[in-house]
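G., the chain you wanted modeled:
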Amino acid sequence: MAKQPQKTSDTDGLMRLNRFLARAGVASRRRCDELIAAGSVRVNGKLPSGAGDRVDPTQDHVQVDGRRVNLPTRNEYILLHKRRDTIVTRNEQRGRATVFDDVPKVSDATVAVGRLDRDTTGVLLLTDDGELAFRLMHPKYRVAKRYVAVVEGFPSEGALLKLAKGVELEDGPTAPADIRLLPTEDRRRARIELILHEGRKHQVKRMCLAVGHKVRSLRRASFASLEVGNLRPGQHRPLRLDEIRRLRKQVGL
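Predicted structure as tokens:
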């Protein structure tokens, strides 16, 4: 599997502790802040004063819950065409198929960037670049996610306008979205393209149901400009260097 080299330190050779942990694949930067505050992190055997402490990746001994962590010399960036009936987790206790069954030879630090429902298919990015993963999921960076939903019935212009402007859900109104009705030969079900810049749980399904149309199938057609191309469901490939650069540029890295 191809891996791409990435610079792992700031210009002066030191890194903020939370950024170091995120780049090491421990967790998102926000979760790393929580681990530091909870006393789970030691630097050279001592508790750090806070997430802003700076460490030397080549010299300092950093542990999380007693386990030493290091920056990877090279990061993994994998594009997976998620197949139906797989769940996005590594901690499956009930014997269900996971996306990692389709990508078995990845580092322990590699995680999925965001989640897709078990029955949702399409683009899924896997990486151990914690800082990139954090930014791609953060609403501040407005990363585009394009979905194609097949729904029961045909939404009216008013329903499509509501989806575009934002609908009220139990966790608050959705942000404006780009909505387009796609051609279909099915007389009972419509195809809707939705481009979102936020990522709530079951968001597309809840949005469509809020305007009276139950989702029957859902595919993420693109994520942050990535598309599956000719990958079949369950197949994956490493990202090209130009794709990695484009992702990082989108989120200011």
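The CA atoms of residues 86 and 106 lie 17 Å apart.

Shout if anything looks off.
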